[in-house]
Fold these 2 entries.
Entry 1:
Amino acid sequence: MRTAPAVDAVIVGGGWAGLLMAKELASHTSLNLVILERGPSREPSDYAADMDELDYSIRLRMMQDLSKETATLRHDATRRALPLRQHGAFLPGSGVGGSGEHWNAQVPRFLPDCFELLTKTSEKYGAGALPEDHAVRDWGITYNGLESYYTRVDKLLGTSGKAGNLRGKLIDGGNIFEGWRSEEYPTPPTKMPYFSALFRDAAKSLGYHPYPAPSANISQAYTNPDGISRGGCTYCGFCARFGCMVGAKAQPSNLLLPILQRHKSVSLRTGAWVRRILFDGTPKGAARGVTYVDASGEEVFQPASLVFLASWTLNNTRLLLLSRIGEPYDASTGRGTVGSNLTHQVSIGAATAFFDQPLNRFMGSGSAGILLSDFDRDDLDRSGHNFIRGGYFAARGYGFQPISAFGVLPNSIKTSWGSEWKKTSVAYYDRTATIGFAGEHLAYKANFMDLDPVYKDALGDPLLRLTLDWRDNERKMVEFATLKAVEVAHAMGAREINPFPGLRSYDAVHYNSTHVQGGTIMGSSPEHSVVSPYLQHWQLPNLFILGGSTFPQNGSANPTPTVLAFVYRAADAIIDRYLKHPGPLG
Amino acid sequence: MRRRHFLTLSAATLGGVLVYSFDRKATLLTAQHKQVRVPLRFFTETEALIVAAAASRIFPSDDAGPGAREAGVAIFIDRQLAGPYGRDRFRYTKPPFEDASREFGYQGSATPRQIYREGLKGLDKFHLLSPVAQDEALRKIESTLFFSFLRQNTIEGMFCDPMHGGNVGLVGWQLVGFPGPRMSNFDEIDKYYGKAFRPKPMSLRQTTGAKVHPGEDQS
């Protein structure tokens, strides 16, 4: 093994979290940084001609290469896990920018009570309100303590939207159920695709409070506080699974990479597959650096004074387990922390509606649309439904492309090939769209991650094993959401509606969302958490873990703004305090 | 090296198709070419004829518009199988292979190439049957893995960008009113509520002028 020259900080993973931390450190300190990214390098110009559905959306060119490493899945601990041999329920990106390149740029915030879910729910409804087998935890921080960082995130991204709660004042037309915002969105809402406008009008007529979706695909030209300028979205419709051809979509490659490239103190190594974090144990615990296999296959030790783990939920957890840092979570005893609290946002197509008129749905963006959060609260009368928490509805104008969109038919039609099928599919092609629902996923004791005893990656290391299944709370929430979505679809004038058939076992085949969380969660004490709310490892204070792996449970909202808000907060604490006095941040 | 196979097609149904030789040089065919012999990368000629016939029953050419034959679906599938997709370049293929319920996805060891080669054995002389008999033969294999690949790949070949060898002449996009990649819909997105907006389809190369390297040509 070759030893590389020591650096001040090594960052594992070149996605949103890692590159934002790098940008903050590079802008405010003289630390020399190395970023290790397993996938290829990227430039915004790579996306000038990537609007090819087959290679990007169907063959998934931007995603992790599963031939080298995947995860295994089982529904409960009594069963044998099987490898996820092809992509399905979630789509981890690979290469510089990570999933932040191919995302839809939907950027709602978590609700304030998400951060104190255990306390607030117990206070309000008694300890018995949560399911018996839950593992819900408080985060060790409140929304009020995070709001200013959320606002910095919105300014970084240039988020388009309309506030519904400005410092406590509710504003019609915005999301009146959201947490307070200190400032209006940096840019106004996006234009609305027809389907979204139909949804907005129908929801209003039913007495609900629809609002423009917060979008980091920006509505107009914007220059952020770092001096990075982007143009507005052109609604070409190639967002999810693509990089943005015009750079209107906020991506690490257009917001963070240009700044990092100006700093000689930063180096970005691609093709670098990190295998272990090396550390000294107690009494004076400290990470020493990481080992990785470089693009030529040589194993390298990279010593560093600070180590940042920012390689997405599953890989963050796996690297701690492989490195034997901390005590692995044992679901049978409840002991240990690493791998606990695995959650996956409950994301479904609640109602697929078929209309008489054309929708022109090739036009749109991954985040232009209308949301509805009337059921994203915990104070509702859901008599007879018997679940807690909720989620938001979305009528987005994703640009639809024909390989994936062709052949979506009303349930009443049974053919799947041949002349009749073709004619019907052509007739319905531009007349159907889906009202989505994204719900909270509670943490449960028996949903967790550990190392698989059978399956290995290309280097011979064990794969990560997910033990994950839905519970009645999610099933009932989804039943309720489906009824509501069907109600709105009727009011939209849909001719036929396919309601969501219901959640059964966790399904690794159909895309859910890439919002998988937990494994290295934050909390107020080392007893139940791996890191503090500064994302600092409890036992190894020079190790910081960034990303959704630190979330004790999922919120209904998409995680990226919350991930970035915590990175800003950790970066401030490191720059202002840790570097002066290395040690635990109180 | 395997013997070279060609698929002979009538140029009348393939006006405007780009045909690639083995050294990847493109020739634009016009109606003056009465018949064209397209070099095959993976299939034998008989296999290609069977795939073309089966794809035409899945996505027929009829009074509702063109189908798999005009779109060149068999050529598309041939190129996909010859490329990284066909040999499972990006799938996790380490043993042990176990049977599983459908929530775990395809767990088998066979690559798309192997699935086709094996599946086609069950469609011996399929291309010589009458359409009614062809439909009957397909109904018998409807629930097989091979059929699900054939159906999915047929849809892909109907609607992919033409650089992949399918959607010849943009017939698939015209059929459903998909314009292909457009640089901007800014002026139109909120101007056509409830009315069809159908710009003339253009391929990625026509729109951007860029030479794009399709995935099937990469290692």
Entry 2:
Amino acid sequence: MALKLTQSEFETERDENKCISCQVCVRQCSNDVHEYDSDQDTIYSDNLKCVGCHRCESLCPTGALKIKERDSQFKTNYNWSPDHLRNIYRQADSGGVLLTGMGSDKPYTVYWDRILFNASQVTNPSIDPLREPMEIKTFIGRKPDKLEFKKNKNLKNKSIKLKTKMYPQLELSTPIMFSAMSYGSISFNACKSLASAASQFGTYYNTGEGGLHKDLYKYAENTIVQVASGRYGVDVDYLNKGSAVEIKIGQGAKPGIGGHLPGEKVTEDISNTRMIPEGTDALSPAPHHDIYSIEDLAQLIYALKEATDWSKPVGVKVSAVHNIAPIASGIVRAGADFVTIDGLRGGTGAAPQTIRDNVGIPIELAVAAVDERLREEGIRHKASIIAAGSIRSSSDAIKAIALGADAVYIGTAALIAMGCHLCQKCYTGKCNWGIATQDPYLTKRLNPDIGTRRLLNLLRGWSLEIKEMLGGAGINAIESLKGNREHLRGIGLSDRELTVLGIKHAGEAW
Amino acid sequence: MKELKNKIKINGDGQKEFSRSRIPSGCAVFGVINEAGEKFDGKMVIDGISIMHERSNGLGGGFAAYGIYPHFSDDWVFHIFYDDTEAKRLAEDEIKGSFKILLSEEIPTKKVPRVENPPLIYRYFLKTGGNSKSRIDSAAVSGLRKQAAGGDEEDNIVNFVMHINRDICGAYIISSGKNMGIFKGVGFPEDIGRFFKLDKYEGYLWTSHGRFPTNSVGWWGGAHPFGLLNWSVVHNGEISSYGTNKRFVSGFGYECTLSTDTEVITYLLDLMVRRQKIDLEMVHLILASPLWEEIERMPRDRRELLQALRIVYGSALINGPFSIIVGNNNFMYALNDRIKLRPLVAARKDEYLFISSEEAPIRKVCPSPDVLWHPDGGEPVIGVVGKREKKAGSNLIRSGKKPVKV
């Protein structure tokens, strides 16, 4: 056997007293970790292949399996972490760019965890959402500077009508939407679960840049269609099968670079949906080749508005980078009806690890800076802000809104609801949970009805929690929380961080 | 000018101290309007508010009175608090540069026990124009606000007031309308009323406020009513949407220097009614908008209207408990939050309309009103000089409890 410096990250611990050699683990593992030796009637496990997805452990009927991080350790070194060593071994083996999946797992400050939310005591009553109305309906889209009215002077029928024509709006029953995940990066069943859950809950899912499968056309009223640099699957039917159009400039996990769907994933169905030949690599360029500046973006925005008869909001998704505030301002001035900002920790199906882990800024800081900048310029009402990039809980969502977002996108959280265990191997196409794969043997593991139900439960649970927190703070409409940073306090943050976030430190009163 | 700049600070000490501490407060409000425009002295409103002594704690009381300066009815009148003569000198320099002063005098007061350490209190009757306009503009600060201002006389007054209150240490303009004035200070409202000898003034519209702040900062400028132009606002409550409202008005050039709810409510009203010309009868649909479930049941045109109002003015929704009484030169307007978390009672007797936190003050000054009712949350009560209040026939006033004969 050739010298292999790569070491396994995980250890399979099998309790032989419990194992009945049923071989569920063998059949479930797409990485071929487990192998059944019929002569010995024993199952052997090759730890080196294990990605730590916990599929076998979850399905083992006797609970005989345990997947643990390997306890064999490199010699302690505070500079050279085990990650550095493993990456170098892998790279010295392959000579390639190291790929990874999902959002960055590096220990950058998670500002959500350093921000505390407020509640009412005495001087202002909290409101009980079980007894009082609690409104979290949200609208995404451009708002006019002011409203004008027509008055009916007829004394018998005095009425006031709206004179101002409203811009198209997305109406959300909860300020949470499903983030862009393409058919290709995830399975059809996963797409269908997202679409159907969005439709049943009254919110939206986003097609990502992979086009839209015809079987999902029926969810048009809850679909945001994405136009990305590869323009896969984009034609006028596609645009009109969405309630809104999102131009994707960047993604939090890989700012500044494009995407790559390997040819082996481009099955017949995907080839039809993306409108590319079967088996060819789908390479999304890093920039849009018709957008080299902000005025080009304006042209695309208006071209899409024309193509959709000015009936849908057209937004722009960018990753949170250092100059995000002026960039967002430019995007709003270019005519975008909403701006999606995807933060440093945002997920992906595949990205170079070094980019995912080192490029961009956290969403918390980006949302705060963008909201502040747009308000200073008096254009905040001209576009909605959607925060994305690792919204892990209802409290993350509520903090994002208090910092100034109108709504949040969830991607990773939705996948976790469907079973994802964050093994970060989406790019291999071997997802044992049937999510990030096109292998029919694996995709059938995700039942779209069950996926839908679990996503609905997640939306419901988070919405209830948002209502509880709102009521606790004495607020009964989500619009009164938007940009209401008085309800946030930082904990353990420096003056500089507090300034950027625009919040006070815990212990400071009004 | 050089000297002036040296004296100018970001905030006066008093203001600074105060704005650091936003004061949630439970309070008493009471207002009376004579819709026929007949004037009456301040005794009635002092009598009324004094009954609600228990709702205040002696840390603030005040009154707004309309129609009290008939000899200067078309001129601007500023009531100003000064910490010292230096602040007075600086502010007067600015006023002289921007206005023609018709009369300036100390506001007459008398010694009253429990009213201590008053500032210097002056009033100025002023005309704009003359050597002024450019000074106002140049004094008036940031580009955004200028852009918002657009050169209108009233916008210039707003800018001037904000400039003095923010930039001149120890000077604070508490009222800046025409033929109206605000009288307020640290003390119980009845004492403040006597201190300012309000029984000597006659107006057709009076509002009053007794304050129960939950901390102990006693600053005269921080008492209520809050005033800007002809607006005066008294407010009982603590709004939970303050941050959202503040950020919303800041986009239109209003700078919240005091961190009080009343201040931001005044700016919201000024923005919507004066600047954006939204009908007064529609304002409650924004400040205390109907619930979505109500809107969804409405006929199409109205649903569209209400939905648009919420979509566009969502950040102007005042959330959390409040009852407010707003005065302006020809109307009195009262409103509760939409789920009525604060008390509000209204009553009519002939051409008088009374609005109060409690029923007792109304009964004190008017033992047998024609009607007395408890307005629903989000249901405005409007008294207009020269007109009777619009009845439930106006379809924009949410149908709540009909007035009940008493």
